[in-house]
Amino acid sequence: MDPFLRRSPPPTPPPPPPPPARLDAAAAAAKFRAAVTGARTTLTDGALAQAAVVALLLPLDAVKTRLQVMPAAARPTAVAARLGAAGHWYGGLVPAVAGALPYGALTFGTYEVAKEVLAERAPRLPRRRRLVAAAVLADAVGGLWLAPAENIKQKVQTGVYADAASAVRIMARTGGVSAFYQGYGALLARDLPARACQLAVYEAIKGRLTARAAAAAADGSGSAAGTSAPRPSPPAPLRPAVALAVGAASGAIAGAATAPLDALKTRMMAQRGGPANLYANVVHAAIQSVRVDGPAALWRGVLPRTVYAAASAACFFGAYEAVKRLHAAGAGAAAAAARGGGGGGGGGGAPRGGAGGG
């Protein structure tokens, strides 16, 4: 047979793409430790500021909690006066502060790990969706620590138990560990949409501010820099005062929007537990609350809830932007050292990818 008529062998198919690397729990834990350790000073400052806000606004939180569980509408000033006369403004202070202190480190570390994993495994997903997903996961993990503290605090605030020590003792004896997680589902039902709303509002406002600043900088340098368009750069960290203001605005909007979910969470956690419970779950709590007290019951305490959420978010995003500025400064110093040929060191142990990176 003519060799030119022989059929050539089929081409060798390309090797299949390697499967995505499995998420190693040890690697994830190492990333978590690196994120928290690299920003430990700022996180400590942020946690202390958050604890100070919790302590300072605890009377407002107590008024909100009482309003949410009262069977009939009452004036906030009257509720505040009764709490003050009874010396109950600061009931539940210890569990409130204890819940706030590690919560920031837990949520920040989880957020950093989840954000990095999503960037590696779902790069086509829009950045904003990755950030929201990472924040939601961070709140779910942080809620494992926050739920027991919230349970104890709200049972003391509503008079179910006289003090935190009595609450811990009786809850442990009658319900075990599960008693401290009563209403955990309601906590997530409040915090997950609140965080998603808060982050969406924050990113939208920040995006407008940074775009305006970038446009102003481009206009100022355009006449002297030639005609080539500047490369887009990642958003710069906000100045501290601006971060506090934008954080407060995002927290206020998210707090007001999720006030009914907060009321349901309070009603779930303020139960004594066991057969005496009025509500089986958050859906049952919503149905029963509207049936017995009317739809307005879910909006009681919306004003103190909004003020509290604004102050809390201002602290959170203030620390968040401070960590980003810390990382940006470390990266700038490392780049300058590399350009100068000095070598010798890293960027101060900051974790890969500052908060809010992509």
From TrEMBL:
Stretch list, region Disordered: 1-23, 339-358
Signal peptide: none
Membrane topology per record: Multi-pass membrane protein
Subcellular location: Membrane
Keyword Repeat applies: yes
Solcar repeats, residue ranges: 37-117, 126-208, 238-326
SUPFAM superfamilies per record: Mitochondrial carrier
One Pfam family in the UniProt entry: Mito_carr
Keywords: Membrane, Repeat, Transmembrane, Transmembrane helix, Transport
UniProt biased composition (Pro residues): 8-21
GO cellular component terms, semicolon-separated: membrane
Keyword Protein biosynthesis: no
Family: Belongs to the mitochondrial carrier (TC 2.A.29) family.
Protein name per its UniProtKB record: Mitochondrial carrier protein
Source species: Porphyra umbilicalis (Purple laver)
